[in-house]
From TrEMBL:
GO molecular function, one term: hydrolase activity, hydrolyzing O-glycosyl compounds
GO cellular component, one term: cytoplasm
The name this protein goes by in its record: Uncharacterized protein
Pfam entry (one): DUF7910
Similarity-based family: Belongs to the glycosyl hydrolase 5 (cellulase A) family.
Amino acid sequence: MELIFCKWVSVFLFSCWLIFSVGHSVEGLHGNSRVRAVNLGGWLVVEGWIKPSLFEDIPNGDMLDGTQVQLKSVTLHKYISAQNGGGMNVSVDRDNPLEWETFKLWRVSESVFQFRTAQGQFLTCSGDGDTVFATAESPSDSETFYLERNFNNRIHIKLKNGTYIQASNDSVLTADFPGTPGWDDNPATFEMVIVGKLQGDYQLANGYGHDKAKAVLKKHRNSFITVDDFDFLYRHGINTVRIPVGWWIASDANPPAPFIGGSLEALDNAFSWAQAYNIKCIIDLHAAPGSQNGMEHSASKDGTVNWQKSPEHISQTLDAIEFLASRYAVHPALLGIELLNEPAAANVSLDILVPFYKQGYKIVRKYSSTAYVIFCQRIGDADPSELYQANLSSLNTVVDLHYYNLFNRYFDNLTSLANIQFINIVRQPQIQALNSANGPLVFVGEWVNEWNVTNGSLADYQDFGRVQLDVYNAASFGWSYWTLKCEKKHWDFEWSVRNNYLQLQSGMYVSNSPRKRISRVILLLGLACIWTFLH
Ligand SMILES: *[C@@H]1O[C@H](CO)[C@@H](O)[C@H](O)[C@H]1NC(C)=O
Ligand SMILES: *[C@@H]1O[C@H](CO)[C@@H](O)[C@H](O)[C@H]1NC(C)=O
Ligand SMILES: *[C@@H]1O[C@H](CO)[C@@H](O)[C@H](O)[C@H]1NC(C)=O
Ligand SMILES: *[C@@H]1O[C@H](CO)[C@@H](O)[C@H](O)[C@H]1NC(C)=O
Ligand SMILES: *[C@@H]1O[C@H](CO)[C@@H](O)[C@H](O)[C@H]1NC(C)=O
Ligand SMILES: *[C@@H]1O[C@H](CO)[C@@H](O)[C@H](O)[C@H]1NC(C)=O
Ligand SMILES: *[C@@H]1O[C@H](CO)[C@@H](O)[C@H](O)[C@H]1NC(C)=O
Ligand SMILES: *[C@@H]1O[C@H](CO)[C@@H](O)[C@H](O)[C@H]1NC(C)=O
């Protein structure tokens, strides 16, 4: 009796142990493990700061789509201003340039541009002698200006037939400068100050023009990430890569202008290399049509966020997900598909995002019952728990959190110790809370061993890396470092590992999650029961 009882207790406890210890690992990864990934950032979705040399041969390469400029009359010493930020008249009367005085360039060619106001209208001048207004909703001939640029950032602006714009003494802009201006102080000369830039796929392709861009991107896609990198990752215990892609990959042979085909072949290569090294792939739709966050890594044209504004963008995005799911669902290296990277909380409401996530989930499930479907948190002022309250499916789903001690004024002047404490005091409880919420697993899909501390020592960086690995290891799905290679050394995973700034072995420690503790207790109880029986 006692023997049978103890046998069943042991079987029961052993089953509990299996559930608690094995049940927590990520399906598809070897052993009882979680995702330990690196992002392949700046590869199939371009970011100028990751590899500045990609942009260096563009003529007038600091005047690309989305470049923000302010223009000051050299005679009036005032800035050009769109009243109300656009939609009305234009004056040359501001001393301190702010939003109304900032224009986003749309590049037609290296010397032909359109100027977009903060509110989205374009500067327009209907012809000779006419005044410039900021009333055009979309650009055509009357909104297209020819620029001449001097070495010291002085510019002239003229109409197509050669008439120059000048700042008149009553503070309006008119197309009536007589003749051709020199570079002295005259009413047709303006000082151009560049206050913002974008360097993404849109800027690169439109800046070079199709043929040159194709050559530049072909070389980049073939050389920036290679099979050797997968060898490096494998040797350092990395079991997954997160690969950002742009929506145009779905029409790779002939993507909409100005985007350039060829990223699909590179993605295929990544899957083969991954398979050879027993590494899994997460495909991350990083750039969606219209842009979901206005940043260069969403391939935004000029910084505006338009993804959510049109049902067509959303259905094109779902088409891209369908394309990726249908192509890679059966590939043994596929671990998951992330539906949309970093939608901006200020622009993309949950009313739009949650139905999109639900549809995306269904589409992936049409092709795979096991691939993880990953929902990225909104960036800006949004609590990731909102995605747990949204009742998204919990069958192989994941919520992706991006943890940077940067990009928020809170971190500007923190000491290294305060940065480390932040990981323990703020990040750790958040991961724990979401781990134990019902629903998707938790993934720290982007983090970096960099901060806004000036001149941190090697030991400071090692401490920061260690605490991040310890805390992010507890995330139920795992983590992914941003990014594999980067011009800025501390963002560069390979550099950080080779130079010992990031010590990965701390990531190998068994994490002390409550689940692991429970599983150890159950195992001990089972052993105790067997021991009692044997004696
Ligand atoms: C622009 O329009 C506003 C409002 O109609 C007016 O007050 C202002 O004087 C105008 N400025 C110029 C430079 O025409
Ligand atoms: C531009 O065209 C207008 C007529 O549309 C003409 O009056 C003017 O002289 C032309 N300007 C130049 C510089 O050719
Ligand atoms: C503005 O006034 C100055 C000084 O009176 C004059 O030299 C200049 O020609 C005027 N400019 C325009 C565009 O009327
Ligand atoms: C996005 O949100 C920001 C902040 O609310 C706002 O300033 C901006 O105009 C929005 N952009 C678009 C295109 O909706
Ligand atoms: C999610 O499900 C819970 C419980 O079924 C329900 O109370 C809640 O209203 C649902 N939330 C949404 C956003 O559907
Ligand atoms: C770092 O801090 C400075 C202010 O000290 C701030 O201007 C800058 O934007 C911060 N950098 C980042 C990436 O957050
Ligand atoms: C950080 O320090 C800089 C320089 O001392 C200062 O200008 C800035 O206001 C500080 N930022 C914050 C958020 O405290
Ligand atoms: C950081 O180091 C650089 C070069 O070693 C030095 O010029 C700079 O003053 C240091 N900055 C601080 C804040 O210590």
